[in-house]
């Protein structure tokens, strides 16, 4: 897909694996018990539930239906101690904790509207996660 469908925000997702083939995930501060893989706003698609869409309409200043994502599989070659969810402190923290997880945990702990995309990502990358 060269560009996302009309009304979908561009986004890049990253399935980051460590040498043990576990996948990086972080817990969201704004959605209790929801974990997600890294993503960057800039193409699998998902629709936002109405309550999320309304909240993001104010936050992003636009009425997006959902996000269109391109996913990449990357290997983490650093040390766990180098992972920093707070950045340089100039922006509000988005995540509280992080963990290396199995593909099953990634899907199970995702917010409901992302689960179908996460299942598809796990299926596509399955040969590299074993």
Written overview of the protein:
With 130 residues, this protein is α+β, with helices and mostly antiparallel strands. It has one domain (8-78, 95-128): Alpha-Beta Complex (Nucleoside Triphosphate Pyrophosphohydrolase). The chain has helices at residues 50-60, 103-108, 115-125, and strands at 8-17, 23-28, 35-36, 39-40, 44-47, 66-75, 95-101. The strands form 2 sheets. It has a 4-stranded mixed sheet, covered by helices on one side. It starts with 7 loop residues before the first strand and ends in a 5-residue tail after the last helix. One of its GO terms (cellular component) is chloroplast.
Give the arrangement of secondary structure elements:
Blueprint: E1 8-17, E2 23-28, E3 35-36, E4 39-40, E5 44-47, H1 50-60, E6 66-75, E7 95-101, H2 103-108, H3 115-125
Parallel strand pairs: 1-6
Antiparallel strand pairs: 1-4, 2-3, 2-7, 5-6
